[in-house]
Amino acid sequence: MKEKTFQILNDRTLLSRKEKVFSRLQDFYDGKREENTLNLNGYVFFPEGVDPYREPERWVDAALDYMAEHAEKLSADERLLRPLCIEFGPYGVHFVDKILGANVFMVDGQWNCEYLKTPIGSLEMPDLDKDPTWQLAERVAKYFVAQKVALPIFGLPTIASPLNVAVNLYGSEVFCAFFDDEEGIRHDLKVITDVQKEIHRRYREMIPEKQLQPVVSWERTQPYGCGQICGCSTQMLSGEMYREFIMDLDDDLLSVYPHAGMIHLCGSHAQHIENFAQMKNLKALQLHNRAAQDLKLYLEGLRKDQVIYVNCCEEMPYEEALKISGGERVIFVGEYEPVKKGQGNK
Which of 3, 32, 188, 295 is most buried (CB neighbours < 10 A)? Predict the structure, then answer.
C-alpha cells in the first residue's frame, strides 16, 4: 500500500517542475535574471499524532503520505517557487547543544536548554556514533532515503553559528570570556565548529544533493549544494568582535558545501555587513523580521553577487521592500506579484 501511495513522489511531471524551480534559483544566484525578484513559499507538513522521538519511521511515513496526497501543490506557476519539504528538527534550536552534553527539556511546547556547569574551555568532541541525539537524526535521514522518493526536499535540524551554540551552552559568560578567557572560548568555539562540520558532512553523505536543504527548508530553499547557518546571536557583537572571534568560523562552516551558503538573521546585524561582504563562502543572507528593516543597508553594503531573502513584516512590508530594492537581488518569502526587469523604484 505504501509503495503505491508514494509513487507520485517520483512522478516525472512533478520532478520536471522541481528541476524548473531549482534551475530558476540557480540562474538567480548566477545573475541570469529574466525577472528582478523571485517569490518563494514552499510547502511543509508536520504530522500530528505521531511522536518522531519514539516512532521516527512512522513519522516519516505520515509526512510522505500527506505529501503524496497534496503533491500537486508543487507550483508550476512562473511567479512562485513552491518546493515540497519534509523536515524533522529534533530539539529545535538546541539540537547541537544536546549533542554537546546540555540538558534540553520541553516547557509549554518549547525546547529549552540549561547552561553547562562545566567551565568554558572544557568542551570535548563528542562521539557521534554513540550519541542518542545523532542516532535519532540519522535514523530519520536513513529511513527517508530508503523510501526512494525523489520529489521531496529533506530539511536538516538547526546547525547554527558556533556563537549561537556557545550562548545556548554558557549564556552571558561567553561574552565575558572574550576578554577574560580568550584561550578557553576559542577552544570551545572550535569544538562546536568541528562537530557541526562533521554533522553537515554526514548528512551530505546520506542525503542526495538534489534533496538536501538546511533548516527551514521551505522558506530558505537554495540551489543544490548550498549550506546555511543561523546567525541570530551575532547581533550581540560589534563588527570588530565578530571579525576577531566568529567570522572565520562561520565561513569555515559554510565551506563544507560546494556552493557556499546562507546566514539567517533575525535581529539588528547591520554592523556586520562589511564582514559579510568579505566572507568568500557566504552567498546569501536571509533577513527575517527586524533584520528586514535594514534591507537598504544590506543592498548597499553586500557584494553584488550576494542574494538577499526577505521575510517581510509590519515594519518592512512588501511594498516598501520593493520600493527600496527595485527587486534587485531579492527573493521574497511569500506569495507576491512578480517583478519583471526594469520594474520597481530604486
Answer: 188
104: number of Cβ within 10 Å:
20
**Angstrom distance (rounded) from CA 68 to CA 166:** 40
Res 212: pLDDT: 98
Q: Are 203 and 192 in contact (CB under 8 A)?
A: no
Identity at 340, one-letter amino acid code? K
Instruction: Name the residue with cell 519539504.
Output: 85
Residue 290, phi then psi, degrees to nearest 5: -55, -40
**Grid cell listed for 178:** 572574550
300-328 in b/e form (b: 16+ CB < 10 A) is ebbeeebbbbbbbbeebebeebbebbbbe
How, if at all, do strands 212-213 and 153-155 pair?
parallel
Whole-angstrom distance, CA of residue 333 vs CA of residue 221: 10
Distance CA 314, CA 321 (A): 11
Q: What is the mean pLDDT of residues 129-141?
A: 98
Say if residue 20 is exposed, middle or buried (CB neighbours under 10 Å; 0-12, 13-18, 19+): middle
pLDDT at 2 over 60: no
Strand boundaries in the chain, DSSP class E? 37-40, 43-44, 84-87, 104-107, 110-113, 153-155, 212-213, 227-230, 261-265, 282-288, 307-311, 330-333
Residue 207 near residue 200, CB atoms below 8 Å: no
Distance CA 253, CA 104 (A): 24
Number of H helices, E strands in the chain: 13, 12
For residue 329, give the C-alpha cell. Answer: 537581488
Single-letter residue type at 25:
L
Q: What backbone torsions phi and psi does residue 208 show, to the nearest 5 degrees?
A: -55, 140
What is the SS3 assignment for 155?
strand
